[in-house]
Amino acid sequence: MVRKYDDFHKSVMVEEVLSYLITKKDGIYVDCTAGEGGHIKAILEYTNKMAKVIGVDVDYEVLEIAEQRLKDLSDNVVLIKSSYKDIDMVLRGLDIDKVDGFLMDLGVSTFQLKGENRGFSFAKDEPLDMRMDVQAKKDAAYIVNNYSQEDLRRIIFEYGEEKRFAHSISKSIVKNRPINTTQELVNAIRKGLPSSQVHERHRHFATKTFQALRIEVNQELKNIEETLAKFESFLKGGARVAVITFHSLEDRIVKNFFKNNERYNFLTPKPILPSQEEIKHNPRSRSAKLRVAEYKGV
Ligand code: SAH
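Above: the input record for the complex with S-adenosyl-L-homocysteine. Below: its predicted structure, written as tokens.
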């Protein structure tokens, strides 16, 4: 695989993450979504390589990129292929009792969007896959071709927040089966929408349905909540959890989790947003929100 250095995924809100997450330079930090290793690299630079970072990602292809990129820092990093929902097993497997912070960055990595044949992007024509974990059983093609119209409608309505057209899109999907590629899906979505929507300039008309399927394929919302609940038993008093989300469904889960949990001080009842400067350099950051909570300890 040939990659240029500047092809790397641009990490979001790096300064903000560092200033909130790092309470102790020689601490142990867990990056639950290591991705291409951008935040991990920043943590190690910021702490003058005093920190140790455990990096977890469910996608072994991005982990290989992270491993390459972090090879000079390998004494301070352990990278593990796993879902964050098994973070407890990962840490126990490493004999780690307590850590100084957890980071989650819930976006899709640039590699997943731009890489070959991952099926995340409506801008390409590829098999309809969307699995972050390529060993997972259900891909997007399975869902689109086998779920009932009602289940598809519900997913598009809830996870895509496509309130007005979930019904007509799901109907069109069912009518246009089999659908095996991203462009076949884009066409089915197009046929389920009035032309005013198809020509909307603000956002591509397939965005919401693609988001919905990605969430369903990777069980994203369910996993977030389960994972947050697992952090507690590994946190030292005063240690922090920082979570970056990219859409309101995720943000709501994170916000409610910390708001209703008296064992945490919720440091950001109002989320931290990227600066105008960052949005200019990295448009993908525009929908990001950072929430941070501090564990009070027992
Ligand atoms: N912070 C990283 C980028 C992370 S992109 C950087 O700075 O480079 C988000 C990553 O989350 C993706 O690589 C994706 O594979 C990973 N991910 C998604 N669901 C996951 C899960 N259940 N467990 C672990 N990682 C997951």
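Notes for the reader.
The CA atoms of residues 88 and 296 lie 20 Å apart.
The chain is about 40% helix and 15% strand.
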